[in-house]
Amino acid sequence: MNITTQATDSHTLITVNETRIDASIAPEFKREMDEIIAASKSPMIVDISQISFMDSSSLGALVGIYKAVKQQDAFIIAGASGGVEELFKLTRMDSVFHMEKTVEDAKQSFLSVA
């Protein structure tokens, strides 16, 4: 699992550097994300733009992650496209998560709230 983080004064950018997240790596994905969340107290942007395939287990992992950070100020998923974006729409998770088209849009969203 390849996830990178970049902390700034206003947020933490979490970039998922994988093309697929499915049942075989969803538990590892959630575990690594939980560690990042525990270490970060700032609003988070999760960049999933490199992911071209997700299944229901990976979506379940994201829901678990969302529940863990719900008390924090913000959690934005950025960069969903193609089949990944369709998965969020079909499951109506696009109405649960705060989603933005790009990381830049997510950053602007934080600025408009501040």
What does this structure look like?
This protein has four helices and seven strands, in the order E-E-E-H-E-E-H-E-H-E-H. With 114 residues, it is of the alpha/beta class. It has one domain (3-113): 2-Layer Sandwich (Transcription Regulator spoIIAA). The strands form two sheets. It has a five-stranded mixed β-sheet with strand order 1-2-4-6-7, sandwiched between helices. It has a two-stranded parallel sheet with strand order 3-5. The radius of gyration is 13 Å and the shape is globular.
Structure keywords:
about 110 residues, alpha/beta, Transcription Regulator spoIIAA, five-stranded mixed sheet, 4 helices, about 40% helix, globular
CATH names the topology as: Transcription Regulator spoIIAA
Major β-sheet strand ordering: 1-2-4-6-7
Annotation, overall tally of beta strands? 7
SSE run: EEEHEEHEHEH
Q: Give a quick account of the main beta sheet: strands, pairing sense, barrel closure.
A: 5 strands, mixed
CATH architecture: 2-Layer Sandwich
Strand content bin: 15-25%
How many structural domains in the coordinates? 1
Global mean pLDDT: 90
Report Rg: 13 Å
Number of helices: 4
Structural class: alpha/beta
InterPro entries: Anti-sigma_ant, STAS_dom, STAS_dom_sf
Pfam family, one: STAS
GO molecular function: anti-sigma factor antagonist activity
Family: Belongs to the anti-sigma-factor antagonist family.
